[in-house]
């Protein structure tokens, strides 16, 4: 069997310049390119993850804005927050902080 006979057995469209160029392009995009499809999929997955985190942080920002508005509107709440969060005290007061003992 000659090489020409083997070459003739391949369908004509598979020997086409456009088919071979397209197949080479797809091979390049799937395997060799710096932005191949695997990396594109990973970046798309990461983008979805970041979109979920964005929603979470937007909700947290709204909660903090609400808490801030409450604190700034009431001096009693502001004092309570300062005492509990930052262990502040009035002059002449003694503050005792109880720390639970850690289990070994």
Gross morphology is rod-shaped
Helices and strands, in order, run as: HHHH
Q: What number of structural domains do the residues give? A: 2
Helix amount, in percent?
Answer: 55-70%
Strand content: under 5%
- Low-confidence regions: none
Oligomerization category of the chains in this entry: single chain
| Arithmetic mean pLDDT | 85
End-to-end Cα distance, whole Å, is 82 Å
Largest sheet: none
Which structural class is indicated by helix and strand composition? Answer: mainly alpha
* Total of DSSP H or I helical runs spanning 4+ residues: 4
Radius of gyration based on Cα positions: 34 Å
Tally of strands: 0
Please render the helix and strand layout as text:
Layout: H1 3-9, H2 17-32, H3 37-73, H4 75-86
Helix pairs in contact: 3-4
């Amino acid at each position: 069997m000659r090489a020409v006979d083997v070459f003739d057995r391949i369908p004509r469209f598979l020997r086409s310049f456009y088919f071979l160029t397209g197949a080479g392009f797809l091979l390049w995009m799937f395997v060799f390119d710096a932005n191949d499809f695997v990396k594109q999929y990973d970046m798309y997955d990461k983008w979805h993850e970041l979109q979920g985190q964005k929603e979470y942080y937007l909700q947290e920002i709204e909660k903090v804005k609400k808490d801030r508005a409450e604190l700034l509107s009431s001096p009693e709440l502001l004092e309570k927050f300062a005492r509990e969060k930052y262990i502040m005290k009035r002059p002449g007061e003694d503050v005792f902080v109880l720390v639970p003992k850690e289990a070994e």
